[in-house]
Amino acid sequence: MALMGIQLVVSLLAASIMQRMAPHCSFARWLLCNGSLFRFKHPSEGELCALAGKQMPKQNRRDRRQNGENKPLTVPKDIDLHLEKAPVGVIDALVLRFFLEYQWLVDFAVYATGVFLFTECYYSVMDASKEVNIGAIWCVLTVLFSLKTLHTLMSHYFRSEEGGERSVCLAFGFLSLLVAMLVLVVREDYLEFGLESGFSSLFDNFEIFARQQGYADWSVPVTKLTVKLGLAAVCAYIGALLAFPGLRLAQTHLDAVQMNSDRPLIQILLHMSFLSPVIVVILWVKPIARDFLANAPMGKTSVTIVPSAAFDSMRLWIIVGLCVLRLALTRYHLQAYLNLAQKWVEQMKKEAGRIAAIDIQRKVTRVFCYLTVVTLQYLVPILLILFSTLSLKALGEFSWAMGAEETPGVTPALVMPTAAPVVPSTLEDDEEGVEDMEEDIQATVAHLSATFTALRSILTPLFFRGFFAFLTWWVATCQVISSLFGIYFHQYLMQN
């Protein structure tokens, strides 16, 4: 196995470029600060007093507090207030909450996409079946970093003083646990993940590997039921992570559709983007997707629309295309969120009474302060689905070509390689120190090669196909549940 191949060189080059170019050229920073997004500035106390028809007090807020006057400046709610627009600038974005986490994750995803595309081109022209797929490693890391970012956001909700957000996360976690336990008992004839064959391959290969290492009487101590219970717990955790992103997606979708009421084409694309997780869920329902397209009823006969051999490749292309569509509509959702400040002001004008000027300023400012949080809640589920699909393609050894003959997911063979023996270094003669060092390096490389070969013998493409297919489907399912509940909440419960 060639460890120090061209893939590793390109990977290290991409990591170095990302580290050095982040302060100067960042796709994440450009996404927010390219001049297409507009925020709303909060009004000053002088502007509010002018709109209310009274003079600004001579003493400012700090002077009044020092003199013992704790009464805040209040204005009528029905004042003719119009917020001033301003494009989101780099200086404005740098002070936003979780901006550094957002910038690092999005930039890492961009470079991971570049490395993956290079490895795909490299594998298409070279026979690199014995090399480690570096692009797949970048994709898996992106999935892990995305989950970590969602965990950071959820921990922020758990530290909230009110506690309502914590209850929402726990409720969606328990609901996801129940749904996952029901899904895991469904037969492969209906949901074609390949988990059963993948786990069987994992257990059998691991047991053979253990026996070859000298554990003759040892067998796998975990059963499939235990593994499925652990997988259901992981699904509950992912469901809790995706609770608020789904609720936020529902709100921004409704506002974006209303914002583009005079643009029917954009509205159609927004609806397609919102329903894209439903399409991803249906793609793994075998009677609706694979069987229907392979034998579509046409009167008394059946017509083959998509052959079963080409369905896996078509499914990969559809998921990637839907993710690209959702990424292309990011600006509309973010602008719809920023418009909540003006929307709240319009709602305030319809109410009677007075309101403190500081409350108006805080409400308008708070919308912009959480821009990067909303951006992460919109982008991270897309990244999870996209890079889980790319990992499925790379590690599951699928093909992008329609109808191409795919490598069966049972390789490598059951004969497991043992670890290469380490060549002992002799330091008896100082003059042979350099040669001994070279031998040690070669022995280390051989040992790492044997280790990676052993891992590939245990974690076969058959296992990766089942695992990442289920992960992709589950992320889409969680987003369908949370976003549809969000639509019901904002359309009916909030209005009542």
From TrEMBL:
Say yes or no: keyword Glycoprotein present.
yes
Provide one Gene Ontology cellular component.
Answer: membrane
Domain of life of the native organism: Eukaryota
Please give the start and end residues of each transmembrane region. Answer: 135-155, 167-186, 225-244, 265-285, 367-390, 467-489
**Where does the signal peptide begin and end?**
1-28
Q: Which family does it belong to?
A: Belongs to the TMEM161 family.
Recorded protein name is: Transmembrane protein 161A
From which organism does this entry originate? Anabas testudineus (Climbing perch)
